[in-house]
Amino acid sequence: MRPRGYDGGQFGHEPVPEPNRWKSTEHNTDLAAAFGRLARDSGDAYWAIRSKRATAFVAAMWNDTCHCFAVGTGDDGHTRNRLLALDAQLWPVLAIPAGLQRFPGALATAQIRLRYGDGFAYSEAGNGIWTEGTAQVGLVMALDRSSGYQTALLSAIMRNRTADGSYYAADGPSLPTGFRLQTDPTQPREYFHTPHLAALAWVALLEQRLNPFTGTRALPEASDRQD
């Protein structure tokens, strides 16, 4: 079945921006949560329908055999891109009702295949610790009340703290994502050893034990479902 979901928007500027036909598991997870929140707050079924559509796309990216999510689709909007990326693996657990039950083994797969030293890499491209993703793992484990995560993960995160209290995106000079730049497909898309707002934000969410998709200090339950 062709996964519908929402595509990657547009690239470039007016008057002739290029449509992105690929679809992202991460982006559709964002939309599932945002539209679900709009449905609850407004009571408008319009948003519930759209939340269901985005959720269905995320579920279509799940593979029961590897207990993992495809990162999304290729440029045809249909063929699954089976790169394993940490945010695409974890965000559905944080955002989608009963995510841990609907996608059993998602966290365990991340721990086995994306671990790098005492932290976590961005993707299977490996080669370094991704600070925000390491904080995401810690948050999922904290909300699931898993034990034993604090010492190792917080040690990895704190090594990436800057003198002014921010956090570096990566622990080394560059961290590959497994993607290519859309502006120059010959070049890899990377994170660098520079202060990064997303890294700071996810560390703050971990410290507060706050799920950004639900606004609560818990994983979403089945009763939160809109469909």
Overview of this structure, please?
The longest helix has 18 residues, at 25-42. The chain has a two-stranded antiparallel sheet with strand order 1-2. Strands 3-4 form a two-stranded antiparallel sheet. The chain has 227 residues and is of the alpha+beta class. 40% of the residues lie in helices and 12% in strands. The protein has 2 domains: 1-83, no CATH class; 114-217, no CATH class. It is globular, with a radius of gyration of 17 Å. The protein contains 8 helices and 10 strands. The model has no long low-confidence stretch (mean pLDDT 94). 38% of the residues are buried. α3 (86-95) runs parallel beside α6 and α6 runs antiparallel to α7 (150-158).
Features:
single chain, 227 residues, alpha+beta, two-stranded antiparallel sheet, 8 helices
Write the layout of secondary structure elements.
Elements: E1 10-11, E2 18-19, H1 25-42, H2 45-60, E3 62-63, E4 68-69, E5 72-73, E6 80-81, H3 86-95, H4 99-102, H5 106-113, E7 115-116, E8 119-120, H6 131-143, H7 150-158, E9 174-180, E10 188-192, H8 197-208
Antiparallel strand pairs: 1-2, 3-4, 5-6, 7-8, 9-10
Helix pairs in contact: 1-2, 1-3, 3-5, 3-6, 6-7, 6-8
Describe, in short, the structure shown:
With 227 residues, the chain is α+β, with helices and mostly antiparallel strands. The protein has eight helices and ten strands.
What is the chain-wise order of helices and strands? EEHHEEEEHHHEEHHEEH
Strand content: 5-15%
- Average pLDDT, to the nearest integer? 94
Number of domains: 2
Molecular shape = globular
Strand order of the largest sheet: 1-2
The total of helices stands at: 8
Largest sheet: 2 strands, antiparallel
First-residue to last-residue Cα separation: 19 Å
Estimated structural class: alpha+beta
Helix proportion of residues, in percent? 25-40%
Identify the quaternary structure here.
Answer: single chain
Poorly predicted ranges (pLDDT <50, ≥5 residues)?
none
Number of strands: 10
Rg measurement, Å: 17 Å
